[in-house]
Amino acid sequence: MMKLTSMMKLTLKYIVLSFLSVTFLNPYVNSSLPDFTSLAEEYSSSVVNVSVVRKQKEKESQSGQMRQSPPASPFDFFNDERFRDFFRNQPQKRKPQRTAGSGFIISDDGYIVTNNHVVEEAETIKITLSNDEVYNAEVIGLDPRMDLALLKINPEIDLPYVSFGDSENSKVGEWVVAIGNPFGLGGTVTAGIISALGRNIGSGPYDHFIQTDAPINKGNSGGPLFNMNGEVIGVNTMIYSQTGGSVGIGFSIPSDLVKPVIDQLKKYGETRRGWLGVMIQNVTEELAKDMDLDEARGALVQQVVKDGPADKAGIEEGDVIVGYNKEEIKDMRDLTTKVANTDIGKKIKIKLIRFGKEVELKVKIGRLEGNENKINEETFKNIDKVLGLGLGDLTENFRRENQIPPTIKGVAVITVDEESEAFSKKITNGSVIISLTHQRVSGNVTLQSTVKAQNSEQVYNLLKERQKEGDDRILLRVWRPELRLVSLVALSFNQK
Q1: Distance of alpha carbon 50 from alpha carbon 128, whole angstroms
Q2: Handedness of CA 280, 283, 287, 292 (dihedral sign)
Q3: Are 308 and 301 in contact (CB under 8 A)?
Q4: CA within 20 to 30 Å of 239's CA: 137, 326, 374, 421, which one?
Q5: Residues 147, 213, 256, 471: which is the catalytic one?
Q6: Structure-model confidence comparison of residues 79 and 323, the more confident one
Q7: How many Cα atoms within 13 Å fall on the side-chain side of residue 490?
Q8: Torsion-angle region of residue 407: left (phi > 0), alpha (psi -120 to 50) or beta?
């Protein structure tokens, strides 16, 4: 047997000590993975299966056409024109549609939260508990905007239930657990981390999703997303997938947005959201520079609804709302959420920036429901050739060529001078000028005015007059064909 030399003994000792230091002293190595068993055992009984029966729509049955599957569906081949041709002429029987999702109990007397899309247009809804007991459910209220629904069953005994946590305290990288019924497999527990917060995926005005890599599949919709304290911090609502299966990108509605909606549905059977009466957009770095703002923050007012709460309070086009009820407004989504969660009739202090100066106004919040279309009903008469723009009438041919929606009213942009500021701000041929806002400086007095003209000549002359009197810039509300949306663009009168 070979004897160890002193040098070999010293080397071996060093290796052993190094291994022990890495294994036991390094917190990342020594720390154990989270244990989800207690959470699963305690809260799985509060998660339910939601089974829905819908009747096929009459017009779909009569036409004999297949209903197109949603994007990224595993049944995407039915959207292929070749397959639709085959099914189009086949006789279709009117059969009930059966779907299923998840939900969770929030009170011992049987109130259940799920997604609106799980139960909308349902003829019957059945709830299956973890012990396989089945109950008929009543719809208490629906909220399509937030994709939430509140159901009620009448159990004979008190039910296990879960509580909402504070999603505002959630952090990226935090462990989360989803429990639901993917593909009808009840009581399925999956785990992952929070991948992102405040995710905007373009699904609506209240986009503020929690993104998670906890596996979520078809049937998980409406189920809870738990933090490690067993609190519901989100309602699982959708996935991003090119195959229809989970690819580790799921989205949950944050509990801080869910709670006030559920409270309203429980109390009124409907939502009663606050309404300010403005159309807004984010303040870009470019706009912040043009408007002499210290930073790109707040919500820029594109349009004010006549006789709406904002109009009555004195809010104007071009104002940048930076504060709401003593809270900072970071962007347009921030303002939208805060207004929606405000009690109807409550008076709120709003801080805004108007031509570089802070202004504070008090506004009485109205109710959104019933007022959604007021902005679209506003009509504007607009402008002619000015600031490097060649303008003309918005004819039907021009509207058709540029696919301009019928709700867009204004003056057509026919030509754009490539040397103009308008060109650099990406106003293009095919755009529509909807309105303009300008300022007039007389001594220390600054006035703001929104031009709604009867014809282009009138506006052209008005702009020339205002330029001579000291105006230095205007804000144009422009419909952009490449973006398919309306935005505000600042232009200077003093162009080279």
Answers
A1: 7
A2: positive
A3: no
A4: 137
A5: 147
A6: 323
A7: 21
A8: alpha
Known catalytic residue at 417 = no
**Residue ranges of domains in the chain, CATH in brackets:** 32-56+95-271 (2.40.10.120), 274-374 (2.30.42.10), 379-492 (2.30.42.10)
Task: Give the span between the Cα atoms of 182 and 155, in whole angstroms.
Answer: 25
Burial (CB < 10 A; 0-12, 13-18, 19+), residue 310, is: buried
Q: Note the helical H segments in 271-407.
A: 285-290, 309-313, 332-340, 374-377, 396-401
Residue 93 has pLDDT above 90, yes or no: no
Q: Regarding predicted confidence, which is higher, 282 or 103?
A: 103
**Amino acid code (one letter) for 423:** F
Cβ atoms of 448 and 318 closer than 8 Å: yes
Annotated catalytic residue 208: no
CB 404 within 8 A of CB 394: yes
336: exposed, middle or buried (Cβ count in 10 Å: 0-12, 13-18, 19+): buried
CA atoms lying within 13 Å on the CB side of residue 29:
8
Q: Structure tokens of 217?
A: 């599949």
The pTM score is: 0.62
Point out the least confidently predicted range of 38-42, 206-210, 327-331: 206-210
21 catalytic residue (yes or no): no
Q: Decide if 276 contacts 337 (C-beta within 8 A).
A: no
Among residues 117, 167, 256, 431, the one annotated as catalytic is: 117
pLDDT tens digits for 400-454? 767 788 877 777 777 777 677 888 888 887 888 887 776 554 444 445 666 653 4
